[in-house]
Amino acid sequence: MTLSYKGTISIFALLICVSSAQLIYLSLPSSSSITTLNHRQYRQDIDAFIDAIKQHSAFAAMEPERVTAITEASHALLQSATNSNDAARLELQLLQLLSQLNDPGASAQRPINGVYDTNRQLQLPIEIRFDGQYWHAFYQDGAMLEPDFPYLTHIDGLPMIRWVEASQGYLADSIKLSTQAQSTWIRQIARLRLDIGLSDRDETLITLSNGEANLQYPLKLTRNQRHAAKVTPLEANALEANSLEANSLEASKPQGVVRLSTNIDLTTITELSKQLAQLSTEHGSPLIIDIRAIKQPQPLLMAWLFSQFSQQNKPQSIGLLQYKRFATSRADQLPRHYIPMSKLSFFEQAALNNQGFDTRKGPTSAFSDYLVRRYNPRVDDKSQQQTHRLSLLVDSSCELECEWIALASLQWPSVELIGETTRGSLSPRYHVTLPNSGIEVQFSKAVVYAPSGQLISGIGLGPAIQLNQLDFEDNNIAELIAAKRLDRSLAPLKGTVAIVSPAKR
């Protein structure tokens, strides 16, 4: 049979399509390579993980003995590995190894069929909060699960302290005692069950108490991680209609609370200025801004903060950073807003020395030269800090840009941090995907210091006024903060001996 020219072209096109489909199929990771690893694959992933830690982890470079401990622990894992190893178990093992780095920016997450899926793990369908003494259970809309039984005492028959201890095994030292970080992990009940040794199922039984009687409450676990903004501290309420209504200055609520979203535009800045001016003029009260959701640099917000609260209209060094050296590191890989200390003017270097940082420090075998993040005010910036005061809400979810803002605020006398100690994770992250399981690992590739020379990475910034988790969700949080501020100001009068008030931080 003789094919026509058109038929030949059609068959040729069909063959190309079939070949392309086969190539696409072969390029997709097989489910077995994601969910189950043989011993060789398991070893390859562990070796890639250890190599990345040694090459790029700033926390490993700070304390080499931690790398030794992690390497020894990984050898023990390899010895106990079989020819069929669960990738989900490997993910947990890597998380436990990463916790030994004391790096609050470290994480490990396993994709499903090549897709980064954060909803795959069964989780508690409720929010849990700690009030400083007891745990409580809430619906996602903020309503208490059982008002007559307010205390959450057990999950799956185990007391809450057991779940807290299990969660701490995955947390860096700077956030081990953070109830916000603990509650985030406890909600990931499927992971902790695997660690504790409990059977995996799609339901749980929690125990509620009122101090005299107990109530058994069954719950169906969920894969949905989308929570109501009212009760989720990691998600910010954008400065939109609902926030503006909450910030309307009523006579009964002289203080406003603004919860910022991840993106700040000119409309947001205009509204912030309006709120600040109105509060300062009518009440003399500080504006309260929740900055916990901010992760990426926000030039408009930083410019506004400096113009309103910085003491002087000249460049300010916010903090200093040192990158972990590695074989292929290059200066052009560094973010543009970090500059070498040698490029600071004589007066800027002198200012750093006056704050406590030794500008004579240089690079080491493990770390680069010091790089400085600074803010250079615009010509039209007008400082008005003489009449304005500001409170910034932070907790252990405050990291990256949120924490840089908090660090900058230490130099502004009219600004104070309120809430919980920040995460201690300001530096850029290094990312690596393990070859067989596809687990994505990230950790800090630099460490950050305050202008005083104090290490901030892995430590965090403490607040001037402490709040617990329930305080953050209190509808009267402004009045609560005012009361705590008043208690703090009256504290020196309680004794008969004069007490010198501590510094701002």
Quick summary:
With 505 residues, the chain is an alpha+beta fold. It has 16 helices and 20 strands. InterPro entries: ClpP/crotonase-like_dom_sf.
Give an overview of the whole structure.
The chain has 16 helices and 20 strands. It has 505 residues and is of the alpha+beta class. The protein has three domains: 31-109; 127-220, Pdz3 Domain, CATH 2.30.42; 241-431 and 442-494, Alpha-Beta Complex (2-enoyl-CoA Hydratase, Chain A, domain 1). The protein has a five-stranded parallel β-sheet, sandwiched between helices. Strands 7-6-8-9 form a four-stranded antiparallel β-sheet. It has a four-stranded antiparallel β-sheet with strand order 13-14-12-19. Helix 3 packs antiparallel against helix 5 (64-80) and helix 7 (160-168) crosses helix 8. The longest helix is centred in the first third of the chain and has 23 residues, at 5-27. The protein is globular and about 85 Å long. It comes from Shewanella halifaxensis (strain HAW-EB4). This is Tail specific protease domain-containing protein. InterPro entries: ClpP/crotonase-like_dom_sf.
